[in-house]
């Protein structure tokens, strides 16, 4: 599960699922459904003042929990589209670590689109 962000549901795994998948003791004890997680990560997404920091947050989320990332993106697409569609370039004053986070977040038109 840890190496598979497409399968990771974080704290949304029920007690029975945790037991069946051998996750007992590896996650926080509380169980949060996907809607509760969505509210929490959206509040965290809204905190940073710059689109660069929001992009870093989304990139980190996608690298760890794609299920939650795509749910967040579909629920708030119009507000997030400028962050994921428009390239965000770090200024030289930003830490190099900002641009070296795992998978990239972004949207691009399909090949051959007008």
How do you describe this structure in short?
By secondary structure, the protein is an all-alpha fold. The chain has one domain: Hemocyanin, N-terminal domain. The protein is built from five helices and no strands.
Topology:
Elements: H1 15-21, H2 34-46, H3 51-64, H4 66-75, H5 77-85
Helix pairs in contact: 3-4
Q: Your description of this structure?
A:
The chain has helices at residues 15-21, 34-46, 51-64, 66-75, 77-85. The protein has 114 residues and is mainly α. The protein has one domain: Hemocyanin, N-terminal domain (Up-down Bundle), CATH 1.20.1370.30. The longest helix has 14 residues, at 51-64. The chain is elongated and about 40 Å long. The relative contact order is 0.15.
Keywords:
single chain
**Unreliable parts:** 95-103
| Beta-strand proportion | under 5%
CATH topology: Hemocyanin, N-terminal domain
Distance, first to last CA: 39 Å
Number of helices, where a helix is a run of at least 4 consecutive DSSP H or I residues: 5
Number of strands: 0
Order of helices and strands: HHHHH
The coarse silhouette is elongated
CATH architecture group name: Up-down Bundle
